Fold these 3 entries.
Entry 1:
Amino acid sequence: MTVELSPLTAGHAHDRGRSLLTVLLILFVLSIAGNLIGSILRYPNIGSAVLFPPYAVLTAALAVSPRRHWIWLAGVSVLAHVVTFLFGWPLSWLLLANVANTARALAAALLLTWFLSGLPRLDGVKALLLFAVAAVVLAPAVGATIGAANVVLHRHVDSFWTPWMAWYVSSALTGLTMIPAMLVVFAYAGGRRRAGATGRRVAEAALLALALAATCGAAFLGNFDGPVSLPLYALFPVLIWAALRFGAAGASAALTVAVVVAIWGVDRGVGPFRAPVPEDNVYALQMFMLFTSAFVLCLAGVAAGRKAVVDLHGALLASVHDQVAVIDADGEVIETSDSWRRFAERSDVPAFDRVHVGDRYLALCQAVAGGRDGTAARIADSVRSVLGGERRRVELEYDHRHHDAVVGSYTISVEALARAEGGAVVTRADVTARRQAQHQIDEQRREVFHLARVAVLGQLSGAIAHELNQPLTAILSNAEAARMLLRQQGGEPGEIAEILRDIIAEDRRAAAVVERLHALLRRGERHLQDIHPKELVDDVLGLAHAELVSRRVDAVALVEPYLEPLCGDKVQLQQVLLNLILNGCEAMAASPSPRRLVVAVGADPAGGVRLTVRDHGAGIAPDLLERLFEPFVTTKPSGLGLGLSIARSIVAAHGGRLWAENNADAGATVHCFLPVVAGPTAPAIHSTSVAGAVEV
Amino acid sequence: MGHDRTLPARVLSIAIVDDDAGVRVSVSRLCRAFGLHAVPYASGGEFLAALDAGTAPADCLLIDAHMPTMTGFELISQLLARDVRIPTIVFTADATPAVPAAYVAAGISNYLRKPLPAADLMAAIESAVGGA
């Protein structure tokens, strides 16, 4: 039966009160019935029952109920016992028998709830073993000790151990066969479990009950006269069926039926236990049922454990969002998650993604790769290297394209399967959304970079006008001089040629200014190229020239010769340097002349280029040294404080580092480390490497 | 044009102080084309040195406002300190339309913005020299 636990705290006090009444009522009825069944067959001399169901009934009721209800449960159990046996037994015997019964059940329930922590669920070998120790081995000893004393007191039996053994075996048999089923009964009665049985399960249970009735009848009520009691064996397939399909509770229910029928048979003198000595029959019956129960319940435990694993396995495969396939050492798919299967059923995915259980994944990838599919070849290589034991885990990314447009981005990881037979787990994750988000972030970041550039150039607009006006002045003056000379017809052709040459040069100079400006103002895609450090410094100092002059800043460039070219986005790096230079100027705004700004570029021992901008201003307050690179932190009266944070993002995107230090003498130095990446053909600096770049 | 005709018969000597070689050369060339004697200097220091050496007889000074090491204004201050009084025109590549207060205070009224057409330049020289 499909059984679920409901939360212990569920339900109102009213419901709990009603469920206690239900439990007490069921306990009372089952205890009366159990007492009557117990009276069917007793040890002839000792008088104790061969099977004593009230033990199982009370133990189960206690084990699934809260401790504060135990007093009520014990009371009802005693009441049922007294009601059944009031006539015909001495009061003292009755009293002591109830002490023995209650003590036994309490011991069993305490041990069960302690061992199995809370609500006992017998759904595995370990749980069943603990159950057996508590309710079959230990608790019966408690009952047997008091019960045997009772027998000795009232029956004048010489030996203490004979009644002790009878009590013990009877309790053990009762506990083993009946408690698992009773636990379920009381779990339902107390509202601790909810039933969710399907029609098919109910039909199967009914069929099982019929088969059980038939085989029990044949086994215990017939008189088969052969050397071996063959009908007895007919019982086993039915019990195994119950164990495999209905767990410990189902097996226990079937065993309870079997033992009751067997007792009835012995009592009537029919069935396989028909020895001349009555004690022998009781003993044989108990041993047969004990070992059968132990075997059947073990089987139930193993089956329940296996079912739990299979259910978990199935749930896992159904639930994982990423698409998972397990392949064996030959590259054949042996298991897939539901998400993988659904993906493989899509018609718009490449052939190497349309694989199902039983398909040869590796061979398929290789076949597709033979058709010059790069992705398939990469997957095939990864799978082969993991299956071959060369690598434990390989991860790769690929895109699905449709008419040259990327329609989906995926990552595939191939990981060795940790088992002796080998194999691998292939996990495919759809990262399209993440990619798109990343793309959007990149775009927004570029936009911010661009806006920051526009802002910096706004700061420079006066200087830029100045820078353009110089060549324009030269061109105008030259042109007017030439016109004058031509009008006077006194000019030599050589002089006119010289003037024209200068005009052309000045025009080019103006064009260069416009070009530099345009590059910085452009909102282009990230464009990686080789950049020579000297060129970078010269370009930016050229752009800032007029500003430096007007701010009375004496800028010096110290560029080490023979530096490796950098790979990066030229415009972005210019932006960084321009920012640092303008910050340096700003830092010296209040300083007396000479205001020296040193821009130095040299090889960094860490294998890259170190660019420093050193000013001779007031320096940076120590607590600001690091915070200066956070957005909206600024020392300037006007300014948003985004420049350095954006500069750091750009440098980080180039795999570099940007930080500030105060100089020993005066002012501060901003250091920029940039790694030298081999050539513009090197893999694009991946946007995910921009740690914390989206600061703005 | 005709401005040259209104100039005095003696050939006027114009000293042009500008750190930008292109501007310095072209403006000198323009002045010569208009029949003036033009001497270019790359910095204020260079001009002062020539002045001290007595090799800079200038009737009019044409000074760029923005120069490294010594700005146009500093040069004017130096000249004032030495009590050298030469009609002076300041020109600047700045886009700012207003004449900086410091220049006004120093008595400089000829403050021109680059690029400056020849007619304007000649008129400025004429007025500076004439007003002197």
Entry 2:
Amino acid sequence: MSASSIEPGPLRWNRRSYLLLGAGAVLAAVAVPLRSPVPLFVALPLLFAPFASALGTARTVRADLAWQAGGLGAEVRIDGTVLGPFRGEANDLVVEARTPPGAQLSRPLELDRTPERIRFRLAWRFREPTLTFADAPTVVWRDPIGLCERTLGGERPSLPLERYPPEVHRLVVARLDRTIPLAGETRARRIGPSGEFFGLRDALPGEPRGRINWTASARAGRMLANDYQMEQTGDVLLLLDVRPTSRDRSIDERLLAIARAGAFGIAEALLRSKVRLGYASFGEFLETVPLSSGRAHRVRVLEAIAASQLGPVAGPAERCAHSMRRYFRPGVTTVVVSSWSDDPIDDLVPYLRRQGFGPLLVSPSPLPLLRKGDQSADDDERLARRLEELERRERLSENWRFAPVVDWDDYWSLGGLVRLLRGPTTRRRT
Amino acid sequence: MSSGPAPGARGGSAFTLALLLGATTAFGFVGGLAEFVGPAVGAGGVVASAWLRRRYGLAAPTATLVPAVAALGVLAVSAAPVTSAELLGGLAALALLLWIADDPSRPAGGGRRAFRAIAACAASLGIAFGLFLALPALPPAVGVAGGLLAFVLLFLAVLLERFPRTTRDGGASA
């Protein structure tokens, strides 16, 4: 959660004020040619009301806000608090939350006011995997008549929201290649003779004395030995393709948002299991975060993923592969997350392969985004969709000559990638 | 303290609605429109606003006021310049403000909290009407100007009371 503080806004009239002022002005103007005092007396309260509302300007000018996200899957439950004291103005404070792009309001905002704090709750539902920062709700003082308002200052932290396929958490036991210093396949986690304590088991004949847990053995009445969990690192490079394609830009933006969320989930799962992870995004040029592990690196990678935006111009795939050689050693397992346009010349995978990388293509399919909805589909439309899917699968299959391919058409599942990375036939060394 | 509209209170409290309906209908009776047309215009505008508030109050809060304000304007323009019409017109405008404050999308008790602001408008109207009655030889604009002056003085008084005055000397302690 990144903290940011905002200053109190100016007092401003809203549309109701202008409606009353306009009506009052018209009535006052009409009274002159009519030579009638009645419009003047009707106009008087209407003209004064916005000024009278401003008399009760908010005594509370700052109120800090704290909020957090919960929920599972596509549902994001928001729970937050606006901290007072409000000097008796709690009922005049309004919390306004903006729904982040790609989300729908699934539970409207509920406020629970006390003199010291205002608690708010709401829920959003994301259609697709998402990685975004939600802007903090604004806290607005509104006068009792509702004619003028003022935005309160205070701490307004933005909230990172990440929703990605939950299966990527199973990547923690993936078999990965180590490129340096000793090449070879290794499990990210292994039960062995060293590392952190994992559990107890019956001692084997000839068990080293150092592994016998004497206290537990005395308590159990039989010989027990300690098991340890050893964490070993492999290397993974995440390459996010942020080049625009010939498709509509809004579709490209949505596909990139899905790809970003997927990359975020993969990175988080792998970094949690102490994997050395590098990150690169390729739009017109390559931008990289070198291979490393640890908490600071996790923050660095996650910020880089969140900052990746659709590039203005598509750079050539060959440039990407050449640039990759400058930053990373060949042989590293490279997960390419690319929406993959139909033009073979844009395809990164063959070029990466030629430069010695072991790519694996994860391609979010644009087809679900292009469909209008399953409810209205008749037989012909269903047949057309099926043909589109087969055509895409046919074209994607050509990439199997160079690398394994995961057709990511169900956005809430990345089972194909997990199976590929966890399976015994993952070696793609050149 | 719970917030938000009370169940079944989407249209606001019945009291403020009845007050506005009564004031505009009475204003319509003493206005210059044909018999029953004036009350119908006043009541129609208020009922339309109440219906709009109930139906679209959250989506378009400003638009819900338009029928009531328009009805009030029509009645004011068509009214004959008699004392009862002047008084009832001002009261109807005040009742409109009270009804606006009683917004069902906000915590209950908006009318009570808006008392100070509406009382300031009522005081200005009272001064204007009092001047108009006390000095009948003068044009009504003088009364309105008096009300305006009183309101400005009230405004300044509240401003002075609200914002703390700063002193230039350092206030050194002994």
Entry 3:
Amino acid sequence: MKLTIERDALLGPLAHVQSVVERRNTIPVLANVLIRAETGKLSLTATDMDMDIVETVEAEVGAKGAVTAPAHTVYDIVRKLPEGGQVELARQGEGERMAIKSGRSSFALSTLPVEEFPALSGDKLPHEFSLPASELRALIDRTRFAISTEETRYYLNGIFLHGTKNSDVPVLRAVATDGHRLARVEMPLPDGASGMPGVIVPRKAVNELRKLIDESTEAVTVSLSDSKIRFAFGAIVLTSKLIDGTFPDYERVIPTGNDKLLEVDCKGFAAAVDRVATISTEKSRAVKLAIQPGLMTVSANSPDSGNATEEIEVGYTAGPIEIGFNARYLLDITEQIEGEHAQFAMADAASPTLVRDVSDASALYVLMPMRV
Amino acid sequence: MAAADEAERMLPRQNPDLAGQEQAERVLLDAYRSGRLPHAWLISGPRGIGKATLAYRFARFVLSETSGGAGGGPGGGLFGAPLPPESMAVAATSPIFRKVAAGSHPDLFIVERRYDEKAGRLKTEIVVPDVQGLGNFLHLTPAEGGWRVVVVDSADDMNRHAANAILKLIEEPPKRSLILLVSHAPGGLLPTIRSRCRKLVLKPLDETTLSELLARHRPELDVDERRVLARLAEGSIGRALDLSDAGGVELYRELIELLGSLPRLNAGDVHALADRLGRRGQEQAFTTLAELLTWWLSRALAASAAGKAPADVIEGDGGLALRLMAGRSGTQRSGGAGLDRWLDLWDKLTRLIVRAEGANLDRKQVILNAMLGLEAAARH
């Protein structure tokens, strides 16, 4: 293997793929990046065995071939090379070393056999559709805060992605929940997605994907089977295992008959909750909402630090109600609401409350109250 | 020499050969072919007879079956169902073999003692962080769409917390997952783990198999030395190789020669031996000698209790045992007070050696101590 590439063209892809490499590894080859030179292009692969990222970039290839070298070291070297220079990567001898040369610097890194490098990608997945990166970002952003971190309920450790119908319109839906709150976001079902199995995308893959599509404006091609999912956009392909479990029947916990409707100015409400929550105890983070027609009093009480109240004007006409919530959860939800007004639909102080953006019907959130 | 070095360093997951365990292999293969493979297996037997090698062999087989390798994969073929697999062998050059050997197969999870960077050696036990990734592994879909295999080598190394963590997963294993526990002493495992596993007991290798294996892995040894090693190792190729590398045969000869003069030991020889093994860099030789001494003693005890001499490993060691344990008169019936004394000594020595390694006792003093104990026991 031998190739030449501009330092700047190499650095970006290296930065992308090396982020999936764990700092501490008990399996030596997982610390490495697989560098493969093909006609006119170079592909970089890194993996943690649960997911892998492959990025392809154009390069002047002198000799085809592949090698694996320590990912973080290669990245650090390339990062420190002067901007605008040319970098030469070459396999030395029988492949025991990989040489990196640029200007007057040269490095020789130890390598491991390519055959030991685990492969996740490669096979064809039966379902495929594409959607704009911005839509995918919206699906992820508005659900991932609710992903559970509890290992015993592993089937909640990801975003449940599936096709379904909402009042006869086919939609692609993303759902996440940790048992205290639930986020459900949908978009019109893309072509080719009908018939796809419902899959749970693990948190780590979600976070890695979100980082990678942050700047992307292109379409993302999603392909999946019932055991793998792949996202391809631009030069990057991310493949991940899925969570092997059944997502609970979430429809059951979304209340339909809540008749106490409250409308608040979202930003003002969030700011008030944030201020008042300063007082609430670190552990429970509870705030109380006392609501009567036209007026809501947000309060918090802590035996250690004192108490706080703030009044805000709200749109409310039903009977007075007092209800408590975890302030962190309230803020997580209001952060995702882009419209000016948020609507809370409540039943009583012990039943799940439905929250939604008044100007956007695609997302809804369910929140369990706290006893205060 | 290079070949010997390689063989010495070969881990069970890198070893393509398994000898003398055809019967156990058949049990696993039959279970697999029956379509109702138990999800957890406890593979037990003495150290160094191929338990882990068998576990990895089975792991490779199951993994290659799902990726359509060895047996043509699941599902019917064009001309009827494919023939059921007859052997577990997976070629050492296949991608699956290479990945399993490197520990980098995405559908294989290996639980073993980890390297402790601070102490600069392997940890003494398997701790909770070592098994933490396991839940995540079993709760994700398999990369190849087939089986997920876990090898625990060895289950005896798990501390209580790690064992409890793994127990949860053995209790409720996901579909198409296979957990292979290797154990040298299954009696020490949690009964709750034992009761949830299908048991597979491996037998020690017979002397012929062991000699053949030694001939392959240590071709430089002569026939006589191989025979002694095979007897010393009692059916364990692992132990035979360890002994061979540590100069065990030489040490054993030296030991028996030394003990031959009991009840009176040659003080000069004893001190020379203790001095030599007490030196820096002789840790391995010390451990080997200690092992051989307690092994000889326990074997002598067992045989004497039955009233006969143990079979000779080298010229005269069996007779020596009988002479000593039968008492000074040589006519007195064995058993009773005489054997008790030797049993106490064995017990004392075993504990002394464990302490010597744990607390870094002066090795020279430990040897002198042991020899004095032998003298005292023999003089009665």
